[in-house]
Amino acid sequence: MTSVTRSELTGDYVLDPAHTQIGFVARHAMVTKVRGAFNKFEGTAHLDGENPANSTVRVSIQADSIDTRNEQRDGHLRTNDFLDAPNHPQITFVSTSVRQVENDRYEVTGDLTIKGVSKSLTIPFEFQGAVMDPMNNFRVGLEGSVTINRKEFGLTWNAALEGGGVLVGEKVVLEFEISAVRQSS
């Protein structure tokens, strides 16, 4: 990784879907976790290296691209019991503020909309670096995660377990491994 100045980071970026992962982790049957990801999404960002508060982010995820490596479960997650992908095809995040909290740590606050319900949340991100890749693209990397309560977004389906508890946990950890490429001016 090469060292870059803050001003060199400034510009408009797009997410690189081949090198970005938007994933999640949810508790299953009280004792294990299910991991998954969304395979289709697009995102843009304007980064202001000198004044991060002027930065913005927009992400749109195809709800029906959910992938937990189990087609039956994925099919259920696409129904009205969960994401209702036919009626709410997009999950979106639009930033409302960006704050630098440490040298390489940022908090991105914005509106997350799932199944037609919007909630404000703050996602902590760690800047992983910037580099000119072999294809002569200026690329930045960020990683972050945040926990949400799925019921706050209308994802309330569940099933009681015979021994007590429920099949699907309320808390879902959203995980972001971002690779974004600066666009030519």
TrEMBL record:
SUPFAM superfamilies: YceI-like
Region forming the signal peptide: none
Source organism superkingdom: Bacteria
Segments forming domain Lipid/polyisoprenoid-binding YceI-like: 12-181
InterPro entries: Lipid/polyisoprenoid-bd_YceI, TTHA0802/YceI-like_sf
Protein family according to the UniProt entry: Belongs to the UPF0312 family.
Protein name per Swiss-Prot or TrEMBL: Polyisoprenoid-binding protein
